[in-house]
Amino acid sequence: MDSVGQFEQIVLTAILSLRDDAYGVTIHEKAAELAAPKNISPGAVYVTLDRLEDKGFVKSWLSDPTPERGGRAKRFYKLEALGERALQDSAETARRVWEAVSEIWGNLGEGPRRRPKWAPVRPK
After folding, report:
1. pLDDT digit string (tens) for 43-85?
2. Is the Cβ–Cβ distance between 61 and 76 less than 8 Å?
């Protein structure tokens, strides 16, 4: 199975959280919220949605045209089983990384974040 990059994880998470309301605009809004403070463009989201569909991670379909959209349809998205599995694998990897970092730096969820004092060896 293909692994997913960080931005693909964000887009998959947006689709998962939006459930039946996952279409281009709402996916971009949710992805922007998840990626904050980094700015993301709608174009990057649409390119990623196409790539995720090509990988078989998401499925899309057109809704019926609606008068409020000037007779245009919306393209909705949902996670396929393969996409759910890829997102679960990514989340599990992120959990393991978080645990390793927390073990080294202490519990980052409590109090102010402190970085360890490092003494890098510089070449002479």
Report:
1. 999 999 999 999 999 999 999 888 877 888 999 999 999 999 9
2. yes
Which candidate, 16, 19, 42, 20, places its Cα nearest to that of 29? Answer: 42
Q: Tell me the two tokens of residue 102.
A: 């927390």
Residue identified by tokens 């997913």 is 4
Q: How many domains, the chain?
A: 1
pTM for this structure?
0.79
In a domain, 122, yes or no: no
Q: What are phi and psi for residue 61, nearest 5 degrees?
A: -155, 160
DSSP 20-47: GG-BHHHHHHHHHHHHTTS---HHHHHH
